[in-house]
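Intended use. Records like the one below are meant for learning the mapping from a protein sequence to its folded structure. Do not use them to infer anything beyond what is encoded.
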Amino acid sequence: MAFGGGAKRSLGSLLSIRMLNGSSTTASAANGVCFSSCVSNTRVTETQIPLGNSQCGSAVFLRRFSVEASDHMSLIKQLRQRTSAPIKDVKAALVDCNWEIEAALKELRRRGKVLATKKSSRMASEGLLALAHSDTKAALIELNCETDFVARNEIFQFLALALAKQALLLEGSSQQVSGIFPIASEHLQDLKLNLEHPKISGETTVQNAITEVAAVMGENIKLRRGFVMSTASHGVVSTYLHSSPQPGLGRIAGILSLEVEDKNAELDAIQRIGSELAMHVVAAKPLFLTKELVSTDALESEREILKSQAESTGKSQMAIDKIVEGRLRKYYEEIVLMEQKFIVDDSVNVKTLLDKLSKEVGSPVKIKSFFRMEVGEGIQRLEESSSSENLAEAV
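Structure written out for the chain above:
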């Protein structure tokens, strides 16, 4: 049997329309409410539904369900924006708290802190260095996480900068004496922070702030170490950050203090050279400031290695001694800051550079101290050492 184009509707749709038409007539007579339907080739469009009709009850329920679902999605979105927690965790907290957003927020924080505590034993070798400084003082901290993905997160970066700024305000011996000083971890963890961020705000301790961010990020986060460098005399503290995602953050840091004898000397040239020297510290990786400061153990160890290499040539003892001394000079150029070739102009070494700077400002200028730090340095070695010890104990 063939049907015309206008009649190509399924038997189910025809029966549904027939039922709707029949029930609407009955409902109209009973309730005095008009009901009409417009039937086209593809759909049925209702214009008014009687309140007493069974189809009306289904429609009202669907509308109510749609409104509630929309409200729930809005709450999930709001809580997600406020916490950055995974969507499944956000929804679970809202369901458990009967869709009360403030109660769900507290529940998420509680669950996150428990989770953060469980993850605190996991290795965290990624992260960022955060730096805060004035003309005469600089504070540098290392905040670690498990992955570089979290290190790129703006909440993590905000916390790192807040910690560095707070460390800069610490009072102590570094205020009166030039040099580089470590900050005791207990002093850092007990510091008070007043955070102003959409997702972490209010007054709290450093340790609580770290725990809260760890809960949000779902990773182990640790404040590993901190240092303060200051100059008590007339001079500057210069800094440089490498691989910096934003000002004050980076993966490698160089800090250096320059002092000038004349208290009236202009500091512009000193600041310019200081910035270049801080970059030099990052690139050249010096270990000692002067040859005199090279440890006896390190020097003797290197001398023995060089002597053994020279003796393998079969030359005379006099020739061997000359070879060893020549290679020791090269060794000094590699590890001693004052002997290194200046990375900006390798025709001079750092010592010659400072002599030129002293003539320019009209007063002797010297490097008081320097410091280089890199994210995660030493962590892998410590982890491997710990694993070896555990294996030895097991054996």
